[in-house]
Amino acid sequence: MARDDLGAMVARLGRRLLAMEQPILARHGVSMWAYVVLNGLAGGSVRTQAALAARIGADKTRLIPVLDDLQERGLIEREPDPADRRVRLLALTDSGREVHRVVRDEIRTAEEALLEGLAPADREAFVRALVTLS
């Protein structure tokens, strides 16, 4: 059976997912990069901006304006590390955790609607494969 290359299919799916997520993010006043940062911090604090950049696959110099905006909005905090005052610990605030939860839940609901055409076992296999490959 002839099919497109994986890259072509993943690119189309990626564009579709981004288009699906954009209105959700806009409704909550969060950019895609801001959401990526919130996701990156959802698992716990990160010791440095460089460590966060590595965790989320971003250029640390491009990350600073996103962090500044999130901090100004009270969604993250950057506190001096008691063990090394030159280092800033990054963490979600309570408001940041709430924004992340609400946006993530809406995105997951939209993802479920997208995947509803697949049988439940296929859905689970698809998500498992994405987790493994990503």
TrEMBL record:
One of its GO terms (molecular function) is DNA-binding transcription factor activity. InterPro entries: HTH_MarR-typ, MarR/SlyA-like, WH-like_DNA-bd_sf, WH_DNA-bd_sf. Residues 3-134 form the HTH marR-type domain. It comes from the Bacteria. This is Transcriptional regulator, MarR family protein. Pfam families: MarR_2. GO terms for biological process: response to stress. SUPFAM superfamilies: Winged helix' DNA-binding domain. The lineage of its organism: Bacteria, Bacillati, Actinomycetota, Actinomycetes, Micromonosporales.
